[in-house]
Each structure stands twice: as structure tokens, then as C-alpha cells.
From TrEMBL:
GO molecular function: GTP binding; GTPase activity; signal recognition particle binding
Name the UniProt record assigns to this protein: Signal recognition particle receptor FtsY
SRP54-type proteins GTP-binding domain ranges (all copies): 271-284
Any one of the GO CC terms: cytoplasm
Protein EC: 3.6.5.4
Keyword DNA-binding: no
Annotated keywords: Cell membrane, Cytoplasm, GTP-binding, Hydrolase, Membrane, Nucleotide-binding, Receptor
GO biological process: SRP-dependent cotranslational protein targeting to membrane
Listed PROSITE patterns: SRP54
Assembly notes: Part of the signal recognition particle protein translocation system, which is composed of SRP and FtsY.
Amino acid sequence: PKLKETLAKTRESFVSKVTQLVRRHDKIDEDFYEELEEILLQADVGVAATSRLIDAVRADVKKKKIGNPEDVRLLLRERMEELLGENAPLQFATAPPTVILVVGVNGVGKTTTIGKLAYRLRQEGRRVLLAAADTFRAAAIEQLEVWRERAGADIVKHQPGSDSAAVVYDALQAARKRGVDVVIIDTAGRLHTKTNLMEELRKIKRVVSREIPGAPHEVLLVVDAATGQNALRQAELFGEATDVTGIVLTKLDGTAKGGVVLAIREERGIPVKLIGTGERPEDLKVFDGKEFVAALFA
Ligand code: GDP
């Protein structure tokens, strides 16, 4: 599906409201700004990004002596693009293996994302190995196995309940031996025992950097767009424990909360690198800020 279709719900709730707003008002006054603010907040753009956008639009209106509310649509679009900034592509090691650590709370779509990413990298001709380091859930290991087959990747797994850092160690040894290009590490996401989980992730990271200098090359945090502001809180939590280098925003299809992309960028300073647009192997897109904003305003 086109990004425009994926974002249908967000577009409907956000841009159609903006369009109505600029048509309904005949001047740009405080009422106008208040309504615009409300629309942004409802689209999960978040308080900080919303006030930055409103302030920027206000300044533009003043500087360019704009009187027609219809012109605000374009200003807003430009400022949203600016806020999202330059695109941040996935980083690869200069000499393989590249190690990508994937973290996130259970249910956000972490395993599916790993499967889709493996599929994508395989399509590009890279050798991929999955490390099943979410040893906490037997189902996670099975699910990863299904994706491994679908993508045509290798896997290293141990028994459920075993030491996740040991799985990672074995995976890295196997990767070196087999000439693997990319190792993708699945990790646990049980949040109720938060401190233990963060300890476990730090331990995995230590093993990775000890075994492969310069690794991990990416620490991707997977968050579910449909959870809106919760996704922001998760970025904060995991960001503190693991130096997240990029966000994967899943389930953008079927949610009206797509504005959370802007909130994460503004409040956490972490770039969105990939987006989930469905449940099929090919439903993972490299995030492009300009394309995203264009699809929203299409
Ligand atoms: P995990 O617990 O984080 O590993 O989550 P899973 O990978 O098991 O995904 C949970 C559910 O979300 C599954 O039913 C997935 O098919 C679904 N899912 C994951 N990513 C997306 C997405 O981008 N779009 C949609 N519509 N569903 C997704």
C-alpha cells in the first residue's frame, strides 16, 4: 500500500481538520491558533512539538505578513518537515557483521519487525542471522523461527528460560564463522519486572561490544504508534537504559495517532528509522520525513 493509504486514519483526523479550520476562519486570530493547537494535540503530536510548531507558524505569519488562514496549511507543512529533520538511514558496519539490537515492550510488534527487517535485508542479498534472546517467552522463539523461514535467514536459539546473553554470545560466534552480514537480536519485553529487563539489556549490550568492537551498530526501539503518548514514555524508559539509536514505529496503518512521530523526534531527539505499515513481510518502510509529511497532507 502507498504511504498515503497507510496514513488514511491519521490524515482523516488531522489534515481534514486543518483543512476545515483554515476554510472556516476568515482571519488568523487567537481562536484560530487555539483550534490548531487542539487539532495537533489530538493527533498525538504532543505538547512540546505542538507548541514548537505553533510558535514557528506564528512567527512566519508575522514575518511574512500573512492574513489568509488558507496559507497556514503550507506553513504548517514546512515546519513539520523541518521538525522531523534529515532522514537517518540504518547504520552498517564497515566490516561485517553488523549487529542490530532490537528492544521494546511485549506486544508492540518487535518480533514481526525483526522478521520484516530480516526479509528486507535478505532481499538486498545480505546474509542474516537472528538471535533469539527473548528466552523468557517460548512463543517468541517459535514466532522468530517462523519468520526466519519466511525470510530465509539463520537463527541461533536456546531453550526457553536460558541465559539471553549466552544466546547472543553464541549468535555472534556463529555469525563470524558463517560469514553473516547482519545479526539481529530479539530481546525480552516484559515490563512488569522493569529493572531486571533493563539489567538484562545492558548485559547483552556489553557482550555485543566486547565480542564485536563498534557494535551494536543500531539499537532499535520498537514502539506501537497506536499507543500514542505511551510510545513516548517507552522511548524515555529504554533510552535511559540502552542508548537507543533509532525508533521503529509500528502499526501506523489503522491508527489516527501518527502524529506521535513528531512528538518522539521533538521530545526524545531520537530519529524514526523504520515504520510498520501492515503485517506482511514487505510492510516495513524506511522512514522519510518529507514523504511522511507529504502523505499526511496529500
Ligand atoms: P511483540 O510481542 O512485540 O514481539 O509483538 P509481535 O511481533 O508478536 O506483534 C504483535 C501483533 O502486532 C501481531 O499480531 C502482529 O502481526 C501485529 N503487527 C506488528 N507490526 C504491525 C504493523 O506494522 N501493522 C499491523 N497492522 N500489525 C502489526
